[in-house]
Amino acid sequence: MSEGNDILTELDAIRQRAIDALAAVQDENTLQTWKTAHLGRSAAVMQIFSQIGQVDKALRGQVGQKANQVKQALEAALAEKEQAVREAVLARKLVAEKLDVTLPGRKPAYGRLHPATLALEDICQNLMEMGFQIYRSPEVETDENNFELLNIPAYHPARDMWDTFYTTKPGVLLRTHTSPGQIRAMRQVAPKPLRAILPGMSYRYEQTDASHESQFDQVEVIAVGPGITFGDLKGMIEDLAHRMFSPDVHIRLRPSYFPFTEPSAEVDIECFICGGKGCAVCKGGGWLEIGGCGMIHPTVLQNGGYDPSKFSGFAAGLGPERIAMLKYHIEDIRYFWGNDARFLEQF
Ligand code: PHE
């Protein structure tokens, strides 16, 4: 009898201890610890349930009922505390992670096309509209394609025109111009007529300065067919200049020398800044140089797989960076590949 009464008193104490402990709980971790301690398998109230068989028969019902009440009360208190803790955690978060929605937003950094790419794409787009097809050719080339087959034998003084990066593998180099692509394109298409452009990077072993860089893009233009003339070459360049700059811009072909073309010329366009009157960009001359060109040398045609007695062709090499420099008044070619975002962000 007294044992049963003791248990009833003990249940009140268990309840009080649990409720007191719960009052100190502030966060989800300690709440979990409390739950294990006061409602878990080995909690005091659970021990009572497992001992209930040993209680006096007369009091057993009462003890069972009371134990249940205590358990339910603790569960109810837990539920209430859970809610309170969740709200407190949220309230703390709201204070700690306060957002000032009136602040101006941060602008995402947008990527953009490189100025050399813009000029390259402009040239290619216009030439494609004129019926030229893009061919790809490698930047790592053979000495044979870059020089020999372009009519520049080893030890020929013309090799001085291109200071070259050689690889450790004999006969393999970084192309000094896109012209070796002429050989590749011709060999792929001959003896059918060919009309192609070959855009891409070229490399020269240069002492760099404001107008010399060790890498730069070129767009090689090539056409081979029966009866192609220097007039066709001039017409192509004129048409391209009209499309790229303005319909009334003039071009000029200045006699020059390249071993793989005969005759050869430098391509000048009328200064699009001053219209030919003379200004700082054209250094007073009224003309701007944008590339080289000429009629493909018979030897080169033959190396490409064409019979020079039946076929003729023209070729030109245009400099996109050169055009971009003129167009955007860029005074130092080293800006292009210097990777300075302050420069690149302006385009
Ligand atoms: N490959 C020549 C150069 O770099 C340019 C050129 C191309 C000239 C095609 C004539 C014909 O410098």
**Given the C-alpha coordinates, what overall shape results?**
rod-shaped
What is the fold named in CATH at topology level of the largest domain?
BirA Bifunctional Protein, domain 2
Largest sheet features: 7 strands, mixed
**SSE sequence, one letter per element:** HHHHHEEHEHEEHEEEHEHH
Ions, cofactors and other ligands present here are:
phenylalanine
Query: How many DSSP helices?
Result: 11
**Mean pLDDT score, rounded?**
92
Q: Please give the share of residues in helix.
A: 40-55%
CATH superfamily of the largest domain: Bira Bifunctional Protein, Domain 2
The CATH first-level class of the largest domain comes to Alpha Beta
With strands numbered from the N-terminus, the spatial order across the biggest sheet is 1-4-5-9-8-7-6
Derived from helix and strand composition plus strand pairing, the structural class reads: alpha+beta
Spans of 5+ residues with little confidence (pLDDT < 50)? Answer: none
Distance between the termini: 95 Å
Number of strands: 9
What is the CATH-assigned architecture of the largest domain? 2-Layer Sandwich
Characterize this entry briefly:
Helices cover 42% and strands 18% of the residues.
Can you offer a commentary on this structure?
With 347 residues, the chain is α+β, with helices and mostly antiparallel strands. It folds into two domains: 3-96; 115-344, Bira Bifunctional Protein, Domain 2 (BirA Bifunctional Protein, domain 2, 2-Layer Sandwich). Strand 6 (251-258) and strand 7 form a beta hairpin. The model has no long low-confidence stretch (mean pLDDT 92). It starts with a helix and ends with a helix. The chain is built from eleven helices and nine strands. It has a seven-stranded mixed sheet with strand order 1-4-5-9-8-7-6. The protein has helices at residues 2-23, 28-39, 44-51, 57-96, 115-129, 143-146, 180-189, 230-244, 298-303, 320-328, 341-344, and strands at residues 133-134, 140-142, 172-174, 194-203, 215-225, 251-258, 261-270, 287-296, 312-318. The structure holds phenylalanine. Phenylalanine (PHE) binds at residues 177, 179, 258, 261, 264, 292-294, 315-317. Its main location: cytoplasm. Residues 127-326 form the Aminoacyl-transfer RNA synthetases class-II family profile domain. Mg(2+) binds at residue 262. This is Phenylalanine--tRNA ligase alpha subunit. Tetramer of two alpha and two beta subunits.
